[in-house]
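REVIEWER CHECKLIST
Item 1: Sequence provided? yes
Item 2: Single chain? yes
Item 3: Sequence as submitted:
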Amino acid sequence: MGHSGRRLISLAAVAILAASFGSPANAAKCGNNAAGFGSWVGQFKAEAAASGISARTLNAAFANAGYATKTISLDRNQKSFKLSLEQFMQKRGAPTIISKGRRLKQQNAALFSRIEKKYGVPAGPLIAIWGMESGFGGFTGNQHTVSAVATLAYDCRRSAYFTEQLYALLQLVQKGWISPDFRGAAHGEIGQTQFLPANVLRFGVDGDGDGRINLAGTGDALASTANFLRGHGWSRGGGYQPGQANFGAIQGWNSAGVYQKAIAIIGAEIDQ
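Item 4: Structure as written out by the authors:
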């Protein structure tokens, strides 16, 4: 896993969220260490309550929240995206993802057929993302998600962006889509393909037909990923290698060039 601006919602979507929850100009003051985090939480909770987040949700969400030191450490040391494509593919275990991905494509043929029929996205890139993000659901993170997102919202480096992610996360808690003590990846990514909270709200779908959206489940995670790609311009039947029609949708998934190319290469190997 790792985070380099991936699955970032558009500036327009951020503006919509900001309009819904108040101006960032009135936001609690950010900080660059743990010292002011408690005060920030208190001020943020007051602002969130005034913006429509229930006291019950806020109390439950922040009951066990704290300053996420590991999240800050990982945020400051994202080195894998500086590797060459060959180094990145090796580090991510591309051959293993391809071989296991081919088996999973066969074993879940009906699921991938339904997803492609509905969203126009073939199995290959979905499986590539699934494998690289969580090892096919093998590890989706063990960090307290509210702590991680709140810490990044408090941290001055990307405070405005992660404040909107925190509001989205609280909406997920309030809707009952995730528990207040949900655990995920270090930057607040959720589920088997690692959606940030605002993208769960925007692109999350019920892919397994059980009547709820749960990105910890394979069907929902893969269908939501296909919905994300379609929402970023995926065109049914188009190619997805660099320079082809759908590579732009893959670029929407992750801002790192090596990650984008890895998805395209691994996906094509699985789809062949």
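Item 5: Key structural point noted by reviewer: The domain at 80-140+201-271 is CATH 1.10.530.10 (Lysozyme).
Item 6: Recommendation: ____
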